[in-house]
Specification:
Layout (H helix, E strand, L loop, with lengths): L14 H14 L19 E3 L10 H5 L4 E9 L2 E4 L12 H15 L11 E7 L3 H13 L7 E3 L2 E3 L3 E7 L3 H5 L3 E2 L2 E4 L3 H4 L8 E5 H4 L10 H16 L3 E5 L5 H10 L4 E3 L2 H11 L2
Parallel strand pairs: 1-12, 2-4, 4-7, 7-9, 9-10, 10-11
Antiparallel strand pairs: 2-3, 5-6, 5-8
């Protein structure tokens, strides 16, 4: 005898069944891809300083993708333009301060609700002036006026922090800047400024050359007298409500660790990926 399969009774698909299936399907779905153009918030490197940032393959963006909150851009006043580069003979007319830094930063700030990173801290743009101080600043000052809505403002009354804080280094127009009642820039100080104690609104950052101050080069143990000297510098800067940075510091994990332990605010590095990995794996 041939067995004939019996028909099963029909199942009534109620609205409740469809709701259950929808919820179940949603719970099993893969995570959604972020919308095009949305920024994924990286682990922020609030003490990382991208030295000579413009020399990376993607100026500014390589640092932003790794969470850096401070970058350095060298500028030359050439033919009325503020060009970005390390050496005067390697400048390109399409690599300007506006195209590589100011415009992309303004786009980020507008997209992220008033800050470079959504809900993030202020972002430091250190502009290292390579040509004569006063003519270069005469070109820079009105240019920055186009971006004042996102820039920190400095005056004798203090500092009104905004999304982007600009500090001038290199050939610094100290006299001109100090005589402005209000301005969109401040000055990168040097170690002797911790003795003269200028207004913090004029000199919020003190930077100096590591190789001039210390003999330790980043391997093995840093001699205790040198650690004490560095700790004293940091303590004095913080007592005056300034940040501190040391260029030409050893670009090694041991050096990064000591600077972080002793409270150096901005740790100079050319190794963006390595520094980011070090910070993310050794954070407290």
């Amino acid at each position: 005898m041939i067995s004939v399969p019996q028909c099963r009774p029909a199942v009534l698909l109620t609205p409740a069944f469809f709701l259950f299936a929808l919820v179940l399907g949603s719970s099993l779905a893969l995570p959604k891809t972020p919308a095009a153009g949305a920024d994924e918030l990286p682990f922020l490197l609030t003490n990382g300083f991208a030295h000579n940032d413009y020399e990376h393959s993607r100026p500014l963006f390589d640092a932003l993708e790794r969470g850096f909150c401070a970058v350095e851009a060298d500028i030359y006043l050439t033919g009325g333009k503020l060009l970005i580069g390390h050496d005067a003979d390697k400048l390109s007319p399409d690599r300007t301060l506006e195209s590589l830094y100011l415009n992309p930063l303004r786009d980020r700030v507008q997209k992220n609700g008033g800050s470079v990173y959504p809900g993030g801290p202020e972002f430091l743009l250190l502009i290292d002036i390579k040509t004569e101080a006063e003519p270069t600043y005469a070109a820079l000052d009105p240019l920055l006026g186009k971006y004042e809505s996102m820039l920190t403002r400095f005056s004798s009354a203090g500092i009104r922090t905004n999304a982007i804080t600009i500090v001038l280094s290199g050939e610094r127009p100290i006299a001109v800047v100090s005589n402005q009642l209000t301005r969109l820039v401040s000055i990168d100080g040097r170690l002797p400024d911790l003795e003269t104690n200028p207004a913090t609104a004029l000199v919020p950052l003190v930077s100096d050359n590591w190789t001039r101050l210390f003999r330790w080069r980043g391997e093995g143990l840093m001699p205790q007298p040198e650690k004490d000297r560095l700790m004293d510098m940091v303590t004095r800067a913080h007592a005056q409500k300034r940040k501190i940075r040391l260029w030409a510091a050893p670009d090694t994990p041991q050096s990064w660790r000591i600077q972080r332990q002793l409270g150096v605010d901005l740790i100079n590095t050319d190794k963006l990926a390595e520094f980011g990995q070090f910070q993310s794996t050794t954070r407290k």
